[in-house]
């Protein structure tokens, strides 16, 4: 096949800084993160929700520096998998790919179910299952469309989401009933009110929640092969989207904490953030917030779904399945320039998991996998700069301190995870290693993996 034909069948490079940033911020989804995590954070850290978000935010921004350096060094649609494959080789690369895809198969159904649940709150006459199917079908159809068109859909939705969450945050700050100093304490929140101090240590206990709340900025790398001026745009997008998420989420939870008339009652509410807005600002504003959450969660579902489809495509292109299956899956549509077959297969898998899977189990497992992948990328940063110095277009400041602090934090987070899900993750790693040794090793040993400089117009 000629180089021109290969180029014609590649992904379409049409995203600029603005559209890539819209996808990245949609993946972080500050409104969704605040709405989902606020209640569990109140229970864990009490009045120190904003402090905990600040601590987690520092780690998230440091992690964004790690991803910015490695993402620009390896601007490939496989994200973390592409990094680990090239730094540590095929066996660990395959393990990362499978874990990454499982993370996607946990994240997208969770988001779809969340969107459906919020829609069901507003329209209780319609089954949640119907909403789940509708959300996944919409996300799949947009994933099959040209990336430029789909990115504008996410951009419009993220603008609406931001308008609502920023307005609600400002209104909360204009209706504060507690002193600002309360937001910088860690006093217990109980049904009867605000209790004694929980100590500073609880801020670190909450790290698994806050890191998950800020995640999504790293998914920008999965659109590398569709981004113009990628090595200049990608690093800025990763860092800026992380900072945006940290700032908006931290201010929002601080506003909610200070405006709450009854924090104790909020802990027992089905939707604590909604309950506080209802207390402080009234039912109409609370309804507007719920609409913003629906928009945000739907937008996040669409963006994250498109992102993991690119990981699946890259894994197939690299020959991680049988030869015929890999060739069939990695086909790119000549009309839309996206991997339509993978989008359809992925959509079917997501739909099945969404309908028959256990949401709580899926969320717990994806939390473990996300932290493990972050840790692997942090370790890779210690080796990549020395192994590929010519690729380091962006260099994180104070290297290797950011990566070291992130890695220490992630090791701590892993020690706080449920042993059952650590064991399941270990089982996945063992099975994947056996798959490599028995099925792929001989054939994949000679398979050429796409190099960043080979991908169409990487430096364009």
Describe the structure.
- By secondary structure, the chain is mainly α.
- It is 72% helix and 2% strand.
- It contains 19 helices and two strands.
- A two-stranded antiparallel ribbon has the order 1-2.
- Strand 1 and strand 2 form a beta hairpin.
- Helix 2 runs parallel beside helix 11 and helix 14 packs across helix 15.
- It is globular and about 65 Å long.
- Mean pLDDT is 89; it is low at 1-8 and 456-460.
Please tag this protein with its features.
Amino acid/polyamine transporter I, 2% strand, 460 residues, mainly alpha
Condensed summary:
This protein is about 70% helix and about 0% strand. By secondary structure, the protein is mainly α. Strands 1-2 form a two-stranded antiparallel sheet.
What is the global morphology?
Answer: globular
Strand percentage lies at under 5%
Count of discrete domains: 1
CATH C-level class is Mainly Alpha
* Total helical elements: 19
Looking at the structure, the CATH topology is: Amino acid/polyamine transporter I
Mean pLDDT figure: 89
Q: What's the Cα radius of gyration?
A: 22 Å
Which H/E pattern describes the elements?
HHHHHHHHEEHHHHHHHHHHH
Tell me the major beta sheet: 2 strands, antiparallel
Topology diagram in text:
Elements: H1 3-8, H2 17-28, H3 30-45, H4 49-73, H5 80-88, H6 90-122, H7 128-144, H8 147-173, E1 187-190, E2 193-197, H9 202-205, H10 207-214, H11 230-259, H12 263-267, H13 272-281, H14 283-317, H15 323-329, H16 340-356, H17 359-387, H18 401-415, H19 419-445
């Amino acid at each position: 096949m000629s180089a021109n034909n290969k180029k014609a069948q590649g992904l379409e490079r049409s995203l600029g800084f603005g559209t890539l940033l819209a996808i990245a911020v949609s993946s972080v989804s500050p409104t969704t993160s605040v709405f989902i995590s606020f209640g569990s954070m109140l229970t864990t850290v009490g009045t120190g929700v904003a402090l905990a978000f600040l601590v987690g935010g520092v780690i998230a921004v440091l992690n964004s520096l790690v991803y910015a350096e490695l993402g620009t060094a390896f601007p490939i649609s496989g994200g973390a998998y592409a990094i680990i494959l090239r730094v540590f080789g095929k066996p660990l690369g395959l393990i990362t790919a499978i874990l990454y895809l499982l993370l996607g198969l946990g994240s997208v159904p969770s988001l779809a179910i969340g969107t459906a649940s919020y829609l069901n709150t507003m329209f209780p006459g319609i089954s949640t299952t119907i909403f789940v199917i509708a959300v996944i079908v919409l996300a799949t159809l947009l994933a099959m469309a040209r990336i430029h068109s789909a990115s504008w859909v996410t951009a419009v939705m993220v603008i609406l989401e931001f308008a609502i969450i920023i307005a609600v945050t400002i209104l909360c700050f204009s209706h504060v009933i507690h002193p600002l100093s309360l937001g910088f304490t860690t006093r217990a929140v109980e049904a009867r009110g605000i209790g004694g101090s929980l100590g500073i240590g609880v801020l670190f206990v909450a790290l698994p929640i806050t890191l998950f709340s800020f995640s999504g900025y790293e998914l920008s790398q999965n659109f590398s092969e569709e981004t113009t001026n990628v090595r200049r745009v990608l690093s800025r997008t990763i860092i800026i989207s992380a900072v945006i998420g940290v700032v908006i989420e931290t201010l929002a939870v601080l506003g909610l904490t200070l405006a709450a008339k009854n924090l104790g009652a909020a802990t027992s509410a089905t939707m604590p953030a909604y309950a506080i807005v209802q207390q402080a600002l009234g039912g109409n504003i609370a309804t507007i917030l719920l609409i913003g959450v629906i928009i945000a969660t739907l937008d996040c579902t669409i963006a994250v779904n498109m992102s993991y489809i690119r990981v699946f495509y890259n894994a197939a292109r690299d020959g991680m399945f049988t030869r015929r299956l890999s060739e069939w899956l990695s086909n790119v549509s000549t009309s839309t320039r996206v991997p339509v077959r993978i989008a359809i297969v992925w959509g079917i898998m997501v739909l099945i998991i969404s309908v028959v899977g256990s949401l709580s189990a899926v969320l717990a497992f994806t939390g473990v996998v996300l932290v493990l992948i972050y840790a692997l990328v942090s370790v890779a940063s210690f080796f990549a700069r020395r192994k590929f110095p010519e690729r380091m277009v962006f260099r994180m400041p104070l290297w290797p301190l950011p990566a070291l602090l992130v890695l220490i934090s992630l090791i701590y987070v892993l020690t706080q995870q449920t042993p059952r899900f650590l064991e399941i993750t270990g089982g996945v790693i063992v099975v994947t290693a056996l798959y490599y040794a028995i099925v792929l090793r001989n054939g994949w040993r000679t398979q050429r993996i796409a190099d960043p400089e080979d991908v169409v117009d990487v430096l364009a």
